[in-house]
Amino acid sequence: MTLHIFNPEHDIALATNVARFTPPHAGRQLRADLGFLPALWAKDGDMVLVDDVEAALEAVRHLRRWAADVLFVPLSAAPLSPQPVAVEPWGWDQGVAEQLRLLGLHHLQPAPDVLSAIRTLSSRQWAANYLLPALVSLGEGMTGQATYLDTPSSLSPLPYPCVLKAPWSSSGRGVRYLLQPSHWQHNAAWAHNVIERQGGILLEPYYNKVKDFGMEFEALPDGQVVYRGLSLFHTVRGAYAGSLIATEQAKRNLLLRYIDASRLDAVRDAICRLMSPVLRGFYSGPFGVDMMVVAASQPTPQAPLNPSELFSTTPQAHFLLHPCVELNLRRTMGHVALSLPCDDTMPWRLMRIDYTNRYHFHIQDTTENLLNTHLV
């Protein structure tokens, strides 16, 4: 029996790097509203830690055809009975380790040096220094560069347009776009604060992004890294908003309008090869690498994509592949989408998270791929 924990404040916990911290209101509400999500990838009989058992039961009722038969348990139910034999959080950090201690499950949490290593590899600095250069060097048609700056003086002059990124952040909160010099005055204090608190900041060119996507992987206990599938997703101001649920071939075909198969396959295989020796012996579980298709032309500011553009297949002149926007050493929403069933008889679906007075999780059919409309 496994205990699952949805801790979407994980990336903020990595930045804070303390056992006891208070996530921002949005992070607490996201966890409270969507704590039931592990029921979508758990196994029958597993346990899911939630803030409110009744609310979780009501939420999962609408997703029953995709959810496992799990036992929802509140954090106050310590010690847990029955006792789980394994724990799978959304991501490992000091905060979730402290929660396990409060539940009497300290024996199931990683050692401090393992938590430290996970934090290091989760930094944008590590991906920029190790993974990105190796992937860009695979051949033509690749792009991507990032420079780590560790002093405020190194921020002047900046090459506009550019992007500044905190080493650890969540849902786009640690990303600032500086498209012209006048934007610096609104972001200077933030950038200096990031350097002071996190030790440095990442400077990247501003790319003319066409599509967000990612590749999802799993590190197995024996050290092998296996590919799990493509993730085509949508963001609004850097925050996750939705994912396409379709077959692997359908998602691949969408990307092949922009990027040839050999580049996609080379990146996939290289990530498996590069990450296996890095993760062996201290991390097993899901992880993902966010990527993007970019236009090779001069970058210009882009309006936010509409979710319907996930289905756009209009080819354009010339595109490059940015193979590592960031590494997420945790479960991702792409993994959630992959856990939902899909085959060629089903319409494509959009998995969405939106917010009114609370966060809502939706799975909605689209009008795409309706080859067998009587099955919809």
What report would you give on this structure?
The chain has 376 residues and is α+β, with helices and mostly antiparallel strands. Helices cover 28% and strands 26% of the residues. It contains ten helices and 15 strands. It has helices at 10-16, 25-34, 53-61, 94-102, 112-121, 124-136, 184-198, 248-256, 261-279, 333-338, and strands at 2-5, 47-50, 71-74, 86-89, 147-149, 162-165, 175-178, 201-205, 209-219, 225-236, 239-245, 285-295, 319-328, 349-355, 359-365. A seven-stranded antiparallel beta sheet has the order 13-12-9-10-11-14-15. A four-stranded parallel beta sheet has the order 3-2-1-4, with helices on one face. The protein has a four-stranded antiparallel beta sheet with strand order 5-8-6-7. The longest helix is centred in the C-terminal third of the chain and has 19 residues, at 261-279. It is globular, with a radius of gyration of 21 Å. Mean pLDDT is 89; it is low at 299-307, 313-317 and 370-376.
If you compute it from the alpha carbons, what radius of gyration comes out, rounded to the nearest whole angstrom?
21 Å
Quaternary organisation? single chain
The structure class reads alpha+beta
Question: Which residue ranges are poorly predicted, with pLDDT under 50 across at least 5 consecutive positions?
Answer: 299-307, 313-317, 370-376
Major beta-sheet overview: 7 strands, antiparallel
Q: Count of helical segments? A: 10
